[in-house]
């Protein structure tokens, strides 16, 4: 249940209830029912106050025109029901956890039905004066409106109470006869039907909204927590660090960020299997949590906040922690590895390497503290065993290499060293190549291929991403135009766009220029933008311009950002790309299956195309097909290729499906 209620980073992903586990369905349904009952009782007290005021108004309206004793009897009976309803409200507030939800639901329904019945006699006491009858009828219809809105979430109760209140009026009017009374009877029937419709639509919307909210919280929790250990992942760590900074601000206290990395995990995975490695990671997480819980019980003791950044690396916030007393605390961290880990009666002994950065000595931001703790950990790993290293400026002696890389990147642009590779996008409905994603590659003349993970962040930092991005855009359009002229007329190309490209310079003019120079049809160009970039209010107008130009818009790495679903309504999103971190563990991880299923269900509901990244196995492919995924890309079919190799790939599969050993779902 904690997964449904924990306040996590807002990343609203709609989850289809059919795609989550039976246990989660049960929890969500129970929570929806609880919310519905709470909603009913929240309107209880305002309803009784309104009822008492209405009875007083009716009493004054009828006084002198209705038998006095009957009027007094009615007003006393009705207000006693209002008092009883109020008492039920206060009783619920005090004891709602003591009784079952169904009991409170039945009690409310019975009380509301009794209140409706107590109203009926006033219909047969209507005064003979037309003006006073008009006022009485207005009060009656206002009361029925209150019942229709006050029973949202309980459509059957609405039907019962409105019938009790209006059917006697209809019967009385038909009995009286005449144009005036017949009009009132007809109006009552129409009004009752109208109120039924309002309640039915509102009830359905209210229930669906509750389910979506609960499912969103569930998937958001899963996306911001490690699926194996259930620990907060690296997306939440900056928030914890920022909270720690606020906690020690203005005090002499400090805190440390520890990068706790297990050694030899690759060897364990290779020799004992990834299942064994996962079991060890879970055990380490449990031991760290036990250590944190024990420390939390000791007053004025250092507290531990445990997160996980990589599969074998944990980040631990230790607050407060004095520098001069840190060694004993850090040595104590190694104690969780004293006992061996047993896998099918086989004991495995582990060691760890720790890197430590202190606030504010080693960094004043979450980014610098994380980077420096990680650098210190890598230094400790060089020596192996249970060892920790405090961050020192000398550890960053490799900074000259970073400066050299920056110069080489400038040279790479000037000397046209960069290349665009193309990874095919496969349409799972037809089994054919539908397009490609343009990816940058850097074959360094000395160091060989340099990973984009190393030079793209650098390009972002120093501003080179703007000219690089413009070049990629133009080259991707040019090359795809060549393939289209070869007969692959429907081929599309997807190009990643960074936030800096959108905010620096005139990106719209850049696109128009690339399309004009290459004579490329904008319908076949798809721009991939991260969730974080889409939510930047400064670029809202730019993104909307994409739609006017006829460009496709895809959300890249969907599910890993901090955004909500609002942008799906504000912009014409064509495609959601499911991040490979979710696809990677399918079908072994139930949590990954839940997240991916939820995203695919949401895409279908919103009529948005879906694409899964990082598909590497037949099992992943079959799963994605079964869930209705539209497109895939990944090493299962092809790695990113040079343009010449991609051309050959297109020629090889010109008239055939790309899958030879997997049955492709027919459209």
Strands, helices and their partners?
Elements: H1 2-5, H2 22-42, H3 44-62, H4 68-95, H5 101-119, H6 130-150, H7 155-176, H8 178-223, H9 237-248, E1 255-262, H10 265-272, H11 274-296, E2 303-310, E3 313-319, H12 326-333, E4 341-343, E5 346-348, E6 352-359, H13 366-381, E7 387-390, H14 399-414, E8 419-427, E9 432-444, E10 448-450, H15 452-462, H16 465-485, E11 492-496, H17 499-503, H18 507-518, E12 525-530, H19 531-534, H20 540-549, E13 552-558, H21 566-570, E14 575-578, H22 580-583, H23 590-605, E15 609-612, H24 618-626, E16 631-632, H25 643-652
Helix pairs in contact: 2-5, 2-8, 3-4, 3-6, 4-5, 5-7, 6-7, 6-8, 7-8, 10-11, 16-18
Overview of this structure, please?
The protein is α/β, with parallel strands linked by helices and 667 residues long. 55% of the residues lie in helices and 14% in strands. It has 25 helices and 16 strands. The chain has an 8-stranded mixed barrel, surrounded by 4 helices. Strands 2-3-1-6-7 form a 5-stranded mixed sheet, sandwiched between helices. It has a two-stranded antiparallel ribbon with strand order 4-5. A hairpin with a 3-residue loop joins strand 9 and strand 10 (448-450). Helix 2 (22-42) packs across helix 8. The longest helix has 46 residues, at 178-223. The chain is globular, with a radius of gyration of 33 Å. The model is unreliable at 1-20 (pLDDT under 50).
């Amino acid at each position: 249940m904690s997964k449904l209620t924990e306040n996590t980073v807002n990343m609203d992903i709609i989850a289809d209830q059919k795609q989550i586990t039976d246990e989660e369905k049960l929890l969500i349904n129970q929570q929806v029912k609880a919310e519905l009952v709470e909603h009913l009782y929240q309107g209880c007290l305002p309803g009784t106050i309104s009822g008492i005021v209405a009875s007083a108004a009716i009493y004054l309206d009828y006084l002198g025109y209705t038998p006095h004793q009957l009027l007094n009897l009615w007003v006393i009976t009705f207000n006693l029901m209002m008092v009883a309803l109020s008492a039920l409200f206060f009783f619920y507030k005090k004891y709602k956890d003591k009784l079952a939800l169904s009991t409170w639901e039945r009690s409310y329904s019975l009380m509301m039905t009794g209140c409706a019945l107590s109203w009926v006699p006033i219909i047969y006491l209507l005064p003979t004066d037309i003006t006073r009858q008009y006022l009485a009828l207005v009060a009656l219809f206002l009361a029925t409106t209150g019942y229709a809105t006050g029973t949202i979430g309980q459509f059957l109760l609405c039907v019962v109470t409105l019938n009790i209140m209006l059917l006697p009026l209809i019967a009385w009017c038909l009995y009286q006869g005449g144009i005036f009374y017949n009009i009132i009877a007809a109006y009552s029937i129409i009004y009752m039907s109208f109120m039924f419709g309002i309640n039915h639509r509102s009830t359905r919307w209210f229930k669906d909204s509750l389910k979506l909210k609960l499912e969103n919280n569930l998937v958001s929790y899963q996306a911001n927590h490690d699926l194996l250990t259930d620990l907060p992942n690296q997306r939440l760590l900056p928030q914890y660090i920022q909270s720690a900074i606020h906690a020690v601000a203005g005090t002499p206290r400090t805190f440390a960020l520890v990068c706790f990395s297990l050694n030899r995990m690759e060897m364990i995975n290779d020799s004992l299997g990834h299942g064994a490695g996962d079991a060890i990671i879970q055990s380490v997480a449990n031991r760290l949590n036990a250590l944190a819980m024990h420390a939390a019980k000791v007053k004025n003791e250092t507290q531990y906040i445990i997160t996980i950044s990589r599969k074998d690396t944990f980040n631990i916030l230790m607050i407060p922690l004095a520098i001069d007393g840190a060694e004993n605390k850090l040595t104590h961290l190694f104690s969780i590895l004293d006992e061996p880990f047993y896998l099918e009666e086989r004991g495995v002994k582990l060691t760890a390497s720790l890197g430590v950065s202190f606030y504010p000595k080693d960094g004043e931001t979450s980014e610098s503290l994380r980077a420096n703790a990680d650098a210190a950990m890598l230094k400790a790993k060089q020596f192996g065993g249970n060892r920790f290293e405090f961050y020192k400026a000398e550890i960053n002696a490799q900074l000259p290499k970073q400066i050299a890389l920056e110069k080489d990147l400038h040279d790479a642009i000037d000397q046209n060293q960069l290349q665009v590779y193309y990874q095919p996008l496969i349409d799972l409905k037809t089994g054919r190549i539908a397009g490609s994603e343009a990816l940058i590659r850097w074959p360094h003349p000395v160091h060989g291929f340099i990973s984009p993970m190393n030079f793209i962040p650098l390009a972002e930092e120093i501003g080179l991403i703007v000219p690089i991005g413009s070049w990629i855009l133009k080259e991707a359009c040019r090359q795809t135009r060549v393939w289209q002229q070869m007969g692959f007329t429907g081929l599309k190309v997807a190009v990643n766009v960074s936030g800096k490209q959108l905010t620096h310079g005139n990106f719209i003019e850049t696109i128009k220029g690339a399309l004009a120079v290459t004579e490329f049809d904008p319908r076949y160009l798809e721009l991939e933008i991260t969730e974080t970039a889409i939510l930047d209010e400064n670029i809202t107008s730019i993104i909307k311009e994409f739609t006017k130009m006829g460009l496709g818009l895809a959300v890249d790495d969907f599910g890993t950002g901090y955004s909500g679903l609002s942008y799906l309504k504000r912009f014409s999103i064509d495609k959601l790309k499911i991040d490979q971190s979710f696809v990677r563990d399918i079908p072994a991880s139930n949590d990954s299956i839940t997240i991916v299923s939820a995203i695919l269900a949401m895409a279908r509901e919103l009529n948005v195309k879906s694409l899964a990244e990082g598909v590497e196995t037949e099992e992943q492919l079959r799963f994605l097909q079964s869930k209705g995924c539209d497109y895939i890309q990944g090493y299962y079919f092809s790695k990113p290729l040079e343009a010449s190799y991609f051309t050959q790939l297109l020629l090889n599969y010109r008239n055939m499906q790309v899958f030879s050993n997997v049955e492709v779902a027919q459209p």
